Amino acid sequence: MTVISSVLFCLGYGTSAEAALLVLSQSAEVNLATNSVLFQIEFNRAPDFFTTDEYDRQADSFQYFIDADGGLPIFRGTDIYYSNLESLIRGEEIHLGGDVRIRNALPPDPDLSSSGGWGSIRGSVPYTLSGNVFSLLVPLQLIGDSDGKFSYQLMWTEYGGAGGYINAEIVPEPATIFGSFMALGGLAAFQRKNKQLKGLRSRFR
């Protein structure tokens, strides 16, 4: 398995609250042999993906914004500032089917009841939740990527409100012993840095 390193680019700040959902660490590991990527999120507590409010918003939710061509910032452009996005991994729709749906960014899906105004469904994949650790194995093709080099923003929310976000760019290491060793070191350093997320919050819409 090719392990790649991620870099923490952005954090949001806000007001912390008891039992508020936080991301303690996160990672993305690309396996070019199987053309897949393993996303993992360590939350501060077990997330609730199935309780919803009167607006059908999940108690706890997350979303990955994927730019298959790579590069930061994630949201850029002049007319439609997210037009460079290829796909979205929609944790917000887990309560609808029990799996994770992946959507095109554009054009908007007319079914606003589940799409959130994003594009059509590309496919869906199962997830695992072990305590407070969420794992998702996704074929690269399903997020619109072919070479394992892409960038993303991970955003998390509570009932669509307060939460936080992280921006990262993925660059696969050469499939060599030395490359794997360096990548493992980079991943460990990134995860240590990601521990700083605890206690930090942001508010966004």
Textual characterization of the structure:
With 205 residues, the chain is mainly beta. The protein has a single domain (23-197), classed as Immunoglobulin-like. The protein contains 3 helices and 10 strands; from the N terminus they run E-E-E-E-H-E-H-E-E-E-E-E-H. It has helices spanning 94-97, 112-115, 177-194; strands at residues 23-31, 36-43, 60-67, 87-90, 100-104, 121-125, 128-130, 133-139, 150-158, 163-170. A hairpin with a 2-residue loop joins strand 7 (128-130) and strand 8. The chain starts with 22 loop residues before the first strand and ends in an 11-residue tail after the last helix.
How is this fold's topology laid out?
Layout: E1 23-31, E2 36-43, E3 60-67, E4 87-90, H1 94-97, E5 100-104, H2 112-115, E6 121-125, E7 128-130, E8 133-139, E9 150-158, E10 163-170, H3 177-194
Antiparallel strand pairs: 1-2, 2-8, 3-4, 3-9, 4-5, 5-6, 7-8, 9-10
In short:
The protein is mainly β and 205 residues long. The protein is 13% helix and 32% strand.
Count of DSSP E strands? Answer: 10
Whole-number total of structural domains: 1
Task: Tell me what portion of residues adopts beta-strand conformation.
Answer: 25-35%
Largest sheet entry: 6 strands, antiparallel
